[in-house]
Amino acid sequence: MKLTSLLLPLALLGAAPSYAEHTSNWAVLVCTSRFWFNYRHLANVLSIYRTVKRLGIPDSQIILMLPDDMACNPRNAFPGTVYSNADRAVDLYGDNIEVDYRGYEVTVENFIRLLTDRVGEEMPRSKRLLTDDRSNILVYMTGHGGNEFLKFQDAEEIGAWDLADAFEQMWEKRRYHEILFMIDTCQANTMYSKLYSPNIIATGSSELDQSSYSHHADNDIGVAVIDRYTYYNLEFLESEVKDTSSKKTVGDLFDSYSYEKIHSHAGVRYDLFKGGADEARRRLVTDFFGNVQNVEVGTTTNSSFEEEMVKLSRTIAELHKRAEEQEAAERNATASASVNAGTEKRLQQQRKIQQVAKPLTDDNWWTKKIVGATALAGCAALWGWGRIWRVWYEELLRRTILHRRSVSISRLGSSRAHRCFAGHPRSNSDNPRPTTSHKQSSRVESWGG
Amino acid sequence: MSAQPLSSNDNDAPITPITPKEGAPASTRKLPPPEKPSDVRRRSHVILSFWLIVLILGLPIWWKTTTIYRADLPLQEMLEWADGKACRPVFPLRISIQATSLQDQEAQNLLRLTQHALDDLNDFAGHHLRLQLGDEKLDSADNGSALIIRLTPGEGTTATLDPYEPILDITYPPNTIPSPTASSSPLATYIASQLRTTFAEEQATISYLLSTNSMPSEHRPLGLSPETTESLAKRTTRSLKYAPTYHLTFSLFTSGPLPSSWNIEGAIDEYMKPVLEVLSPIHNFTIDTQVQLYASPGVQNQILNKEDLSSFINAAEWPLSPSIGGAPTINFIVFIGNQTIANPSQDSPTSQSWLIPQWGTVYLLSLPDDTTHVAAATLKQPLLTFTSHLLSLTGTPESGSLPLRLSTLARIRSADLLLRASSTLGSLARLAMALPSISIPSSVADGVTKTMSHLRLACDNLGGTEGLAHARIAEAEAERAFFEKSMVGQLYFPDEHKIAVYLPLLGPVAVPLVMGLINEIKAWRKRRRERAEKGAEKKEQ
Fold first, then answer.
1. What residues does A214 pair with on adjacent strands?
2. Where in the cell is it found (chain B) (predicted)?
3. Does the annotation count A186 as an active-site position?
4. Facing B430 at nearest CB: one of A57, A172, A297
5. pLDDT of A310-348, one tens digit each?
6. A53, A244, A317: residue with CB nearest B274
7. B285 to chain A, minimum CA–CA distance in Å?
8. Predicted TM-score (pTM) of this structure
9. Which of B136, B168, B201 corresponds to the end of one domain?
10. How many Å apart are CA B423 and CA B435, to the nearest integer?
11. Catalytic site residue A379?
């Protein structure tokens, strides 16, 4: 007895965190580069998109960010298609693709807004990451990056700190259960170095000062079609994870990386994960790339109980309705006259309200007006004051000059005007600008950094 | 700039300065003409005005435009809510006893004894049953009691829950009425234990909720068996997050061209509407339906194993998330086909449906091949399954009569919302402290204030009907405050970035300004020294 009473709280403590089970899978797939020669980045993202879709994550739970449209690029020799392999076996664009953020919508701000769900009312649900504390999220990013940053669209960049803070905000609001963060860019491993929120497994394609290389080019398309890191990830996913019943673990996936294949040192970070490397490596690949739920098979086919319930609720609803009607009838009897008057008034009010033109956004409308008016008035005052001041100043100047003149007349002749300008003899031997010698890599491969 | 005049041109005669400097080297070098005092003054005015503009106009504008507005948040209070210190969730449930056949004295006595017995049984202070003597006329809705016990004399001691109203009918043999002096009575103990079993699930659920949230340990009830915890964990995993409105999508998928129509509206009216109506005080529902022909499932096997079921839904091709409006969707799918679910044990009949946690239900319906229209009667079984799954997806408790289950659901949901709003407040407070560069608009502070006042009201009315309404508002406000749209931006700027932004902008402006000021100060000091020397010379003379 004593033992059980001692054990019970222990069992509770043990039981509380062990229910760890996710109920939904989400994927955030981000490409961050534009332009034709970055074809491979879009192909990277689209091939991951295809994979997670193959493994059962519905489009409503995939957030796909594509800053450019390679399929419709005029330089595309195969219009309407995107391929990630020179054999051109699989058209990644296909006829069933849902891009959530496209073109100039792909910005750092939108990405952070997406992760933290700080979006306006107008944002449709399909463009939001509606995760909760039972959601596993795959975050895949690719583009051009550097030490602790990833460039977005040639115009801005996301820092490793921004990313870490965004994940922390998600953790604070219990917006994820576990995250697998993958990034394929130059010096990718620096991007996850600043993360500090729990339950994140992070992996990247290359170390600090290492480029991330492309795998091969398609001679007809004319550019590289996929990056090495993504290529070998896909190879593993295509060959080892054929469907959602696969039992391959994340550890198996990470073990498949090698320098010989990727040509850079892929990195993995386990320390944020509860239970450390062992626990993290034990997670199934389909925990992040697939959509596997623990379904409950219905137990009974005996419908009498359910029928009973429906009958019951019908009666209850009727009872409620009757009670309400009775109440309403009583209320009506006592106060029908006043109600009538009230509705009349309300109608009038509504009509009145409709007549007033309202600005679309009503926040601080008056404040803005006042600020504008003040600014205008200020400008006018400044101008007027300047006029007055100038007149006054000229007057003052005239007086002092007159005064000076009267004083200096006596001294005339003692000084001589001197108009010699002392300039510097400057040697015009400007150094020729040192031309930075660009090391052109002799590889056929293009590099991502 | 080295003040090396061009000069050493012998043609130009050296110009003697008007006021030769004391001890200056012989004027072999050419010097610029002296400045007029008015020019000197003007120059200092110019420099002064530049600096005044920079200091009076520039600096405040820069300060104003670059400071991040951070409204004051009551951080301490918010953290107290999150830690459960601000509110101790108690559920005082009032239970009326209607005993018309008893004398007032007897009834009072019975009530006292039952209350004693109840208090002895109860080990969780948060969930508290309080008995009171009720009037015959009042029903449960009016006096706010959770349950009415109707005592009637009868043959033996029996207890039955009224299926339509929250009423527990208890019959007792007349001789079991305790005498006024008795310190215990079998009838009182019986009533107490009946009450306890009636509310056992609610107690367990609420104590589980409290234990999974960050409540301080002294409020945390113990005594849940691991099995109970597990089943409760399973149930919370299954049920959706509370939302005031749910969107129900009924889909008919068929692998061929037939059937192409179904009488879903009639079926819903017949088999689901009543339940939706009784749920209406807690949730609103919107409904849409669709029929999809030639839909192939994700798994083609004739017999579906449990592993196959989770990939049965062809997420890539089935249009299942219409994303209409802002409400979360619950999916109910009828799939016409002759696939069957593998039967784990031979003795129970094969099941035709499975529930996907927080998502919905799939029902496999096999029909003759030439069926073109699915009648409402055929949909009866699927719809009844959906109805019972809907109840479990919304987190309705499983035991007790329906009215009791619903009122329990309202209480569980209000506790849940209260805890969630509190934890959101805590998140917001921690975030505000952790990220000093995030802006906090005043609307967030307003939201926090509103949240806390409603939380207070909800906390005070947890056992009552008001609780849910307040908790709902509090949760909505807390979410709005946390997800304030303007509280974003790139939060972190390294110092290198700041320098990189400011230097090209301010460097070229600042150099002449600073150099001018330094020169002017130097000149001013020189003039002062000269004047002082002159004064001294004059005195000597």
1. A227
2. Endoplasmic reticulum membrane
3. yes
4. A172
5. 777 777 777 777 777 887 887 777 665 555 555 555 555
6. A317
7. 16
8. 0.75
9. B201
10. 18
11. no
